[in-house]
């Protein structure tokens, strides 16, 4: 079974430029997550989708970040314009409903490493 | 500042030894816990999970212990191998309206020497 696929794997841009990340979750996983991981820290949730609906975007900096999951499968995370502090690894994860709410195992992709110069 | 996050706890062991990685969590309402392994340049990889109605769960070479009284979680790795070298994160899920939102701990760097 293929895992979570992300692209690109690396991205270097200048500040104020736009950037987009793409994620294809594990087949059949209706829940999709975007996380940001700063150097030396654990991932922090940005947004969670149940199918095509964003059910938790409270941590997403909406002034410059946007995300979509139009058909409930693939998802795109965009930053416009990027700032120096956005340099991080952007991780996508997916899951299926578990035994109880909040007990779904999340499987992570390899991430996109963003460097903003 | 940002440099605080770079000072991860470290554990250095010899190949074949048992390793114990500890994690303290803060939310007494958390009802689901997961250990992830993250190798350099890769995303976190699921190792083992445990629900709050359990104290112990065993997998292949790994055991997770949960002490809800002191809000402590530990991961035990038996017969540690060089391939176990990675950063290990514990994560908790608070359930309720926060379900689906994993809160990750700081991470521990495990280095296994041949």
Overview of the structural elements:
The complex is a heterodimer of chains A (117) and B (114). Chain A has 117 residues and is mainly beta. Chain A is built from no helices and 11 strands. In chain A, strands 2, 4, 5, 6, 9, 10 and 11 form a 7-stranded mixed beta sheet that branches. Chain A has a 4-stranded antiparallel beta sheet with strand order 1-3-8-7, with no helix packed on it. The termini of chain A are far apart. In chain B, strands 1, 3, 4, 8, 9 and 10 form a 6-stranded mixed beta sheet that branches. Chain B has a 4-stranded antiparallel beta sheet with strand order 2-7-6-5, with no helix packed on it. In chain B, a hairpin with a 6-residue loop joins strand 3 and strand 4. The N terminus of chain B is likely disordered. Chain B is 0% helix and 50% strand. Classes of the chains: A mainly beta (117), B mainly beta (114). At the A-B interface, strand 5, strand 9 and strand 10 of A face strand 3, strand 4 and strand 8 of B.
Question: What's this, in brief?
Answer:
Chain A has 117 residues and is mainly beta. Helix content of chain A is 0%, strand content 47%.
Annotate the secondary structure layout.
The complex is a heterodimer of chains A (117) and B (114).
Chain A lengths: L4 E3 L2 E4 L5 E6 L6 E7 L6 E7 L2 E4 L8 E4 L6 E5 L8 E8 L11 E2 L3 E5 L1
Parallel strand pairs in A: 2-11
Antiparallel strand pairs in A: 1-3, 3-8, 4-5, 4-9, 5-6, 7-8, 9-10, 9-11
Chain B lengths: L9 E5 L4 E6 L7 E7 L6 E7 L4 E3 L3 E6 L4 E6 L8 E8 L8 E3 L3 E6 L1
Parallel strand pairs in B: 1-10
Antiparallel strand pairs in B: 2-7, 3-4, 3-8, 5-6, 6-7, 8-9, 8-10
Keywords for this entry:
heterodimer; A: 117 residues; mainly beta; 0% helix; globular; B: 114 residues; six-stranded mixed sheet; disordered N terminus
